[in-house]
Design brief:
Number of domains: 2
Helix content: 25-40%
Distance between the termini: 32 Å
Largest sheet: 9 strands, parallel
Number of helices: 13
CATH architecture of the largest domain: Alpha-Beta Barrel
Amino acid sequence: MTLAEQIRQPTLLLDSNKAQHHIARLVHKAQTSGVRFRPHFKTHQSAVIGDWFRQRGVQAITVSSVDMARYFADNGWTDITIAFPVNVRQLPEIDALAQRVRLGLLVESIETAVTLHQHLTHDVHIWLKIDAGYQRTGIHWQDVELATAVAQAVTAAPQLHLTGLLAHSGHTYGVTGETAVQAIYHETVARLQTMQAALRQHGWQVALSIGDTPGASLVDNFRDVDEIRPGNFVFYDVMQAQIGACALEDIAVALACPVVTKHPARQQIVLYGGAVHLSKEMLRGDDGVNYGRIARLTHSDWEILPYKVVSLSQEHGIVQGDEALLRETAVGDLLLVLPIHSCLTANLMKRYLTLNGEWIEMCSAC
C-alpha cells in the first residue's frame, strides 16, 4: 500500500529526515557554544521523537504542562522544566513529579513561592520568570525590588532551590529577518544579565535560560547564557519561514487533506481539513490572509505549490487556485497544507504518519 493509499481523512505527515536534521543542527550549535540544550517538547509531544533527541545526547527537556511532564517522565526523562507559571491547583501532581525527576518550576510572585513552600515536600528547582520585552508573563527586567523579594521568598524555603532567570523572547515572532531577530535576542540577554548582576549583589548566583526558535535558528553564539530552550524548530512552519528562521523547504510536517469539491467559477478547491485540524492561526499580508501553504505528495517527499488556504471553518479549508490547479486536481485527490503554526496543528492531530508509512503516537493526555 502506498503512503497516499493509507490516508482516508486529514492526516499529519512527518518528514522524519528533516526533523532529525533540525535536531542535529541545534544540538551542534548548543555544543559549539558550550550551553545546555533543553529543547521544548510541546511542539512534538511524542516519546518516539523525544528519543531522537536522546540519541543526540540531549538529557534535559522543557514542557508546558504538568501532564506533559508526567508523560515524558514515564518515558525515561529525569530532568524536566515546566516552562509555564505554576498552577497551584496541581500541587499534589507537581509534588509527585518532584519525587521522580529533577523538576524545574517558574515563579514570578511571592505568593506562588510561599504556596510552594507550604505545600511541597520534595525539592524543586526554581527559575524566576523574567519579562525581557515580550510582556506576557514574568517580573519586569528592571524590577529588581520584586525580583529580590521573590528570590528571598524562594530561598527561605528549604525545598525550593533558586536556580536561575528564564525568559522567552516571543516578540521575535513579530519581526522578520536575521538582523531584527538577532537584535531582540541580544537585547533579551543584556536585560537578563542586568537582573543577574543585581541579584549577584545580594549573594545569589543564578543561571540564564532563554528560548525561542527564531533566535535559536538565527543566532550562532549562545555563550552569554547557560541554556537554550527552542521547540518549534523540530518541525518549523510557515510562520517561521516568514520570519526568516527557515525556508519553506525546511518544514517537516504537512497536513494531508482530501479534496471534497471544486468551484471552477471561483477557482477554488475545498479540502476536508479545517480549523479543528490546522487551528485558525493565520498570516496576513498584502495578498490577503494565509492559513497554510499548499503542497502535493511526490514519490518520496512533497512539492510546494504557489497556492494557499484562504479560508477555514471547522472542517472546511478553501484553497484559492487557478485553472491549472483545478485541472490537475480531482475530487478525492490529496493536497497537503504546510501549517502556519506546527505546534498547534500537531496538538490537534495527536499523531503523525511518516513518509515511510509509520505511525508515531503523541501524548494523548497533554
